[in-house]
Amino acid sequence: MNGQNQDEQEQTGSPNMNYRNSHQAVVEKNKGIRDKRKTLQESVAMIQDGDHISIGGLQYTRTPVGALWEIIRQKKQGLTFYKPLMSFEGDWLFVSGAMAKAVTSWFSGGVTWGVSKIMRSFAERDPNTFEELSLLGLSLKLKAGAMGIPCIPTKSMLGSDLEKTAGLERFTCPYSGEELLLVPAVNPDVAIIHSQVADIYGNGQIFGPPCLDIEAAKAANKVILTTEQIVDNEHIRDTPNSTNIPFFCVDAVVELPFGCYPHECYGRYEPAYEKLGEYGQGLLDSEDKIGFVEGFLEQYFYQPADFEEYLSMFGVKSLLETTRLGRIWQP
Amino acid sequence: MNGQNQDEQEQTGSPNMNYRNSHQAVVEKNKGIRDKRKTLQESVAMIQDGDHISIGGLQYTRTPVGALWEIIRQKKQGLTFYKPLMSFEGDWLFVSGAMAKAVTSWFSGGVTWGVSKIMRSFAERDPNTFEELSLLGLSLKLKAGAMGIPCIPTKSMLGSDLEKTAGLERFTCPYSGEELLLVPAVNPDVAIIHSQVADIYGNGQIFGPPCLDIEAAKAANKVILTTEQIVDNEHIRDTPNSTNIPFFCVDAVVELPFGCYPHECYGRYEPAYEKLGEYGQGLLDSEDKIGFVEGFLEQYFYQPADFEEYLSMFGVKSLLETTRLGRIWQP
Amino acid sequence: MSTYTPAELCVIMGSRSLKDGQIVFAGAGLPLLSAIHAQKMHAPGLAILFEVGGVAPRIESLPRSTNEARSVRRSVATPATVDMMLYLQRGFVDVGFLGGAQIDRHGNINSSCVGPLENPKVRLPGSGGANDIASSANRVFIISYHEKRRFVDKVDFITSPGFIDGGQAREEAGLLGGGVEKVITNLGILEFDPQTRSMTLVALHPGIAQEEVHEKTGFELPVSDNLEETLAPSEEELDVLRGLDQERRYLKKGDF
Amino acid sequence: MSTYTPAELCVIMGSRSLKDGQIVFAGAGLPLLSAIHAQKMHAPGLAILFEVGGVAPRIESLPRSTNEARSVRRSVATPATVDMMLYLQRGFVDVGFLGGAQIDRHGNINSSCVGPLENPKVRLPGSGGANDIASSANRVFIISYHEKRRFVDKVDFITSPGFIDGGQAREEAGLLGGGVEKVITNLGILEFDPQTRSMTLVALHPGIAQEEVHEKTGFELPVSDNLEETLAPSEEELDVLRGLDQERRYLKKGDF
After folding, report:
1. Which residues pair with B264 in a beta bridge?
2. Contact B19, A178 (CB under 8 A)
3. DSSP C199
């Protein structure tokens, strides 16, 4: 779904206009065993304005913040983002202008900071900027995309108003006579995912809940995999049961320690609650919400020379403390 | 699908007559955290004549031979078995009278022993004893059952004669206009699965390829889990990423070392090739194939007092040798 | 007689509603407290699931969100979100707890918008997994602070279906789950008439006047012929509960 | 000039047909030998997949079956069988190798039965993953011993679809994969006419007479206007190959 196809979608209302194009994209790409390491800049440069992008993780766990940070720095425009639950990063994507539309089941900050005022100011002005599906509905869009089918039946959302607003078709099972809804598949142009470890070929190992990242990796036409740590391929072959992102899905691998910061990475570090709290409270207290986020973006996204300088703004103590609280032996 | 419902199925040709019954079976069972240890005899006693049973593993890898051995000893009748690829155990189930029908994508011995003469003698007399689907087709029957939907679309089997013989309905996706086939779900009455480790609550950890066992565990109304080794629940909680069978699916846990013998268990032991070779060659050479298998069943299945005595017939050297060849550190 | 806050009362009523061996979807806040409380009081075999991918986690400190790593620590498994939500569709989830900005007489819940979605007065965060729980959990318990603006005649938007228009509407829609079995508020307990599927007051909490319930309900609320009074929380129930939230993050006084 | 067996010839022709970086479904026997041979000769980045759940395994000793633990040793991942087969449907599998009891002029394959399935003369083992590979692999290579009873006008049963009745039948059926690109036999190479989708002889192996091909084909076989002769296996190709199957389990003389 590149910019052009996306327009077709708007016209037809079908997010799966190009089932065949998405299939062909995978057929044609070089899926082989090769060194896929790229810089963060090179990887994000693969994204075109108007693309549909799935974001890994869920709420503020294992969010690929580093890739989003670079997307915003590269001034990408008109993107549609898919995420199971949107958190602070949704505010940043809206205010920066990168996100034209959010497709998600839930959109706010952390639970303790109430409803996102940024989401409200965008969605109340233009409801089309926030397309809501149930969490299973969104999950099945990616699942169907991953399975290589254009749609999949479900019992969720029947009889609700989401059935209508999401424009879901009814379906009667010819074997059982059951009434179901058909969720159309999505094949994002690019999936951005952060794993605890990966090898240079793109074999990724996610520890803790994989959220929808495994589905997204297969559904997407291209995958950018950022990882806390690149490990030797022999380590991957020693632990094949832990590999949940196979290399042939992946197009770029970027080693990016603390790549979810200030969000968390299971087994590696907890969220920087203090910093998130400052941000959340600051947003609540500020008169000019948009201005507040613009200031935050300027300070944390645009001014730092690179991602390490961005991390430096949180400080060593924050990194050490969140690591002390979050690390567990397994990953 | 108990005996009675199975009959309905035969009448309607629908393997999913009772989508609601299968749902209700899961709703009503006690899924909680409790000690689910049972003897092999008690576990297999849960199976009723006429039940539909899914067999874990694939061909001769991680076959739950111990549970099948007990099913045959308990003289169960009229069972329908689902397995991705049927191997020697299919011969045993047919000749013993336990299996009325095999639903599988492939049915023979090991590759090196050619086409199963037993399968031939049954399927050539009554073609309904062997229902063939493609491997993805069979996989999706269980997948749909596991997902709690009555059917699922696929591009496989289109235009083949399997489309007709399996009685698959065509489906046009309302979003993309794509032509697909709908594979009806199956919810077996009982799934029999063998894992390398499990705790007393039924949290199972399968290492190496899980084959279709994760799908079967969710699709089935009841699950019998035999395992090489029962481990402490704390070990499961130390390694939650390795748990692929969650406790709430499982109704019985049986510790059964060498429970796949003479088949293999990934990371624990290789197949007893020598013994399988003797069996395969003996079957090839014998005039009376059925008689040969009956003799084998008498000797290995009916006469032994218990499973340990059955294993004794293969001998310590065989167990040690296959373990030496098959073990790897991980499981 | 012991004193307790509305939140404490609701959590304990929620806890009492849970049975041993049940599989429960419980979000952060009062539902999670009810589930943990039940485990400690009478349901040691009850298991909690979180959408993010937590199965029967051991919860030492109450998480800010049930979607963070802290909340899934010591889980027995960490499945993908899609698998967690599909457990609902397959019938594995016995109880789901829900709440919302608006709840109507037929138990429908709105967590999407105040006013029409095309032109909302207030755009709310949305369903999350709530619609899926309402659609397919074997039964649903609603915990809510009782006030007129919440208990409305008809929700502006059905995010999570209860009995829709009442009667057989839910069954006719093809839904699998049993729907809302019980609404627990700080004033009493409400259930649904088997025929009309309309919310009915079945019990009042100690010291609560029926009038207050009617005042704080935005629609004509039928009252059961055998209206009961609930048993006040015991000292033991309160002690156990207060041990779970010592910082009073969720058990604070007043609204919740 | 070096001598070689029909099996060795076919494996090397198969190997030459593979490109670096391709993802290949290769069953036990000659296809697996072709894939490993290609990795050693010219395609180090080629990856082999096995239905059971093996991804890019390191194959030290040739397994009896590609479904056993030995065959998946040192894999980079061990996915579920359903996921392995779904990789085909999503377009991840560039090449699938197939063979069968009967192959017809349109590349359809029968591995289910001789005679009608309702009343078979011989019931065969069945599809396994063959139908799925034929349906959805990006391209299919058939390797087969060339004999009249195998190369039939019309298969008794279409287990795995080629071009069905020819022409646009495959596209009209809604199939995703590209279908059979090449048939490699011990006599020559056969491809399909872009219009009729009928099998056509495009190359003969060194020393093979065109007549022999026609004798051993059960239908009228068109011959390409520019019929080519294949390049005989080189010493290096044969040495590498023979190193892979030192017990001659698959490279034995004659039929295979």
Report:
1. B61
2. yes
3. E
Residue D100 CB partners (closer than 8 Å, separation 6+): D109, D110, D111, D130, D142, D144, D150, D159, D160
Instruction: Choose the weakest-confidence range: A247-256, B101-110, B289-298, D156-165.
Output: B101-110
Q: For Cα atoms B125, B129, B131, give the angle at the middle one, nearest 5 degrees.
A: 125
- Which member of C47, C78, C91 has the closest CB to residue B23? C91
Q: Nearest-CA distance from C181 to chain A in Å?
A: 18
Which pair of structure tokens corresponds to residue C61? 């400190």
- Residue C59 pLDDT greater than 50, yes or no: yes
Residue D17 confidence (pLDDT): 98
Q: How confident is the model at residue C27 (pLDDT cuts 50, 70, 90)?
A: confident
CB contact under 8 A, D89 and B136: yes
> Does D89 contact B at CB distance below 8 Å?
yes
Question: How many angstroms separate the CA of residue A295 from the nearest CA in chain B?
Answer: 40
Q: Distance between CA atoms of A256 and A240, rounded to whole angstroms?
A: 22
With contact defined as beta carbons under 8 Å apart, do B91 and B115 qualify? no
The span from the CA of C53 to the CA of C69, in Å, is 10
What ipTM score was computed for the predicted complex, to two decimals? Answer: 0.96
Using the predicted structure, report yes or no on whether residue B31 has a pLDDT greater than 90: yes
**D163 — phi, psi (to 5°)?**
-105, 20
Give the whole-angstrom CA distance, residue D64 versus residue B112: 7
Which has the higher per-residue pLDDT, A1 or A170?
Answer: A170
Which among B151, B138, B330 is positioned nearest to B242, based on CA atoms?
B330
- Residues of D with CB below 8 A from A33's CB? 21, 44-47, 56
CA angle (C125, C129, C131) in 5-degree steps:
90
Give me the amino acid identity at D238.
L
DSSP summary character for residue D102: E
Known catalytic membership, residue C68: no
Higher pLDDT, A184 or C69: A184
CA-CA distance, D34 to D53, in Å (whole number)? 20
pLDDT at A7: 41
At residue A109, the pLDDT reads 79
Arithmetic mean of pLDDT over chain C: 95
3-state secondary structure chain A: CCHHHHHHHHHHCCCCCCHHHHHHHHHHCCCCCCCCECCHHHHHCCCCCCCEEEECCECCECCCHHHHHHHHHCCCCCEEEEECCECHHHHHHHHHCCEEEEEECCECCCHHHCCCHHHHHHHHHCHHHEEECCHHHHHHHHHHHHHCCCEEEECCCCCCHHHHHCCCEEEECCCCCCEEEEEECCCCCEEEEEEEEECCCCCEECCCCCCCHHHHHHHCCEEEEEEEEECCHHHHHHCHHHCCECHHHCCEEEECCCCCCCCEECCCECCCHHHHHHHHHHHHHCCCHHHHHHHHHHHHHHCCCCHHHHHHHHCHHHHHHHHHHHCCCCC
pLDDT score recorded for residue B13: 37
Cβ within 8 Å, pair B148-C86: yes
Q: Per residue in A121-138, pLDDT tens?
A: 999 999 999 999 999 999
Closest residue in C to B244 (Cα) is C77
Cβ atoms of C98 and C141 closer than 8 Å: yes
pTM for this prediction: 0.96
- In the chain, the amino acid numbered D229 is E
Q: CA C179 to CA B304: how far, in whole Å?
A: 52
Q: Is the pLDDT score of B4 beyond 50? A: no
Distances (CA, A) of C43 to C164, C244, C250: 32, 16, 22
Number of neighbours of residue D248 by Cβ within 10 angstroms:
12
Amino acid making up residue B266: Y
